[in-house]
Amino acid sequence: MPHTEEWKVRLYLFEEDDRTKARVVLDTGTTELTGHGAAHRNPADPDVPEIGDELAAGRALYDLGRQLVEVADRDLEGMNPPEDGRSAGPSAGRTAPISEHVRRG
What we know:
The chain is α+β, with helices and mostly antiparallel strands and 105 residues long. It has one domain: 2-Layer Sandwich (Double Stranded RNA Binding Domain), CATH 3.30.160.240. Helices cover 30% and strands 26% of the residues. A 3-stranded antiparallel beta sheet has the order 1-2-3. A hairpin with a 4-residue loop joins strand 2 (19-27) and strand 3. The radius of gyration is 18 Å and the shape is elongated. The protein starts with 7 loop residues before the first strand and ends in a 26-residue tail after the last helix.
């Protein structure tokens, strides 16, 4: 049962003074999740904007990934609750769709 999806990811970087902020948006076509990250340059460090961009973007992507795994964990638990009442935990398989509670409104 082959399955192919295309999810779109947009990354926005905002620089102001010694601070860089990033926002990354995952759009699955039916669901949208947003991750955020930031970086602050120490005034004693050289001004290399690319480093701030990389840190802020990496942190935003990490935030987005964490959210996506949490949604998948909730979906998985909702589809197949453990018989002993314990959580399936983060090591459980990832086969569930993104849950209804994060769908665009």
